[in-house]
Design brief:
The structure is a single chain. The chain is α/β, with parallel strands linked by helices. The protein has 11 helices and 10 strands. β2 and β3 form a beta hairpin. It starts with a strand and ends in a 25-residue tail after the last helix.
Length: 336
């Protein structure tokens, strides 16, 4: 069965067609990065207007590229949250209109859950449970135990900044540009990750995250070093601090739960030092490590379509009544 996926939770408009939850037939993304660069971050109203402009042309292009007509689509999956409400409503309204017009089943999808499913989509596998899931992105740092479709126990989440948000703010402080993650990684390639001693927030204190203190530590370091500051060394040291923090939490979760695999996803999962550190952990403790390629780490509709395929049976309400939610905890009931 072919699932049409629609994603518009933040600043990327995306449409994809996925067969049986594991094979991408077509996947397109319209990025707004250049538009929001001048602001140093996403402006929700601007993002909503750009989603409106891009949605239908992208839909037509994705179906044309795949050579698939509306009669060949078995269901529609759409992001219902969490995310920015304006952008979410553009995708939801499009999906609802198509589902109503053509009599197609509609599956509301939790964006965070879909990020984890992207790791299985990348290797053409059905999700295998249980596993420890780590989602790291611009707005989220979530550590969960996944025991089945839409069955998640949240072990820990960030109390303030997320890793991607941290990178954006540090990049702005250093005048490196936007988005912060890629430019910090590029700048840190020639840096020494041991040059600057930065804190590992909440190390050994349960599964919760907090990155605001790390941001403050960088701010103070920049002020103290002045013209002596090595920006490449700082970027490398910052990435090492983030990686150590995340690896420590993941290691503790794997030990306590006894799960045989670790799944990492989200935009920050594309970070090379983090991927290498997490792969080394999994090799050391002998568990399977799944992480999407960088193209599937960032927001995309292919992961939405895949998650919709695997969770369609869990929809127990009229999906046309589903609303967008800025905050929708993983595994929580569908938002009305």
């Amino acid at each position: 069965m072919i699932t049409l996926g629609i994603e518009s939770s933040c600043d990327d408009t995306s449409v994809a067609l996925v067969e049986d939850g594991i094979r991408v037939v077509s996947s397109l993304v319209s990025s707004q990065v250049e538009i929001h660069q001048r602001f140093g971050g996403v402006v929700p109203e601007v993002a909503s207007r750009k989603h409106l402009e891009a949605m239908l042309p992208l839909l037509q292009q994705a179906m044309g590229q795949a050579g698939v007509g509306i009669s060949e689509i078995g269901q529609i999956a759409v992001t219902a949250g969490p995310g920015l409400l304006g952008p979410l409503l553009v995708g939801l309204s499009t999906a609802k209109a198509l589902a109503w017009r053509y009599g197609l089943p509609l599956v509301p999808v939790n964006h965070l859950e879909a990020h984890l499913t992207a790791s299985f989509l990348a290797c053409h596998k059905h999700p295998r449970f249980p596993y420890v899931g780590l989602i790291v992105s611009g707005g989220h740092a979530n550590l969960v135990l996944a025991e089945g479709p839409r069955r998640y126990t949240t072990l820990g989440r960030t109390a303030d900044d997320a890793p991607g948000e941290l990178y954006d703010k540090v990049a702005r402080l250093l005048n490196l540009g936007y988005p912060g993650g890629p430019v910090i990684q590029k700048t840190g390639l020639t840096g020494d990750p041991k040059r600057y001693s930065l804190p590992r927030p909440m190390a050994g204190k349960g599964y919760g995250f907090s990155f605001s203190g790390l941001k403050t530590a960088v701010l103070h370091l920049v002020a103290q070093e002045g013209s002596r500051l090595s920006v490449p060394d700082l970027c490398a040291s910052l990435q090492a601090a983030v990686a150590d923090t995340l690896v420590g939490k993941a290691a503790a979760a794997l030990k306590e739960t006894g799960a045989g695999r670790l799944v990492m996803a989200g935009g920050v999962a594309a970070n090379k030092p983090l991927r290498e550190a997490m792969a080394a952990l999994c090799e050391r403790v002998r568990v399977e490590f799944l992480v999407p390629p960088p193209a599937l780490c960032t927001d995309n509709a292919a992961m939405i379509a895949a998650q919709g395929y695997f969770t369609a049976a869990t929809v127990d309400i009229d999906p046309l009544l589903v609303n967008g939610r800025a905050d929708w905890p993983m595994g929580a009931p569908f938002p009305l």
